[in-house]
Amino acid sequence: MPEHSDLSAHRATIERIKEARAQAIHHTTLARRFAVERRDLMKSLLEQGVTQSDIARELGVSRQAIQKMLAC
Q1: What's the rounded Cα separation, in Å, for the pair 72 and 70?
Q2: Per-residue confidence (pLDDT) for residue 57, from 0 to 100
Q3: Coil, strand, or helix at residue 52?
């Protein structure tokens, strides 16, 4: 089994890695929440008769992009 090296000289870098990881997890969580909100808002528009093409045009994306957003 390999020996563990002494990382005490690298403590600041290790702590920055931990912080970056925590931030990435937080941002992923937020992105998921926003994706759900976006999907729900688009579904509401669709229920009111707005087409996927209309939504796509307003957002400046393709209709296929809207379909992918709705699938999330």
Answers
A1: 6
A2: 98
A3: helix
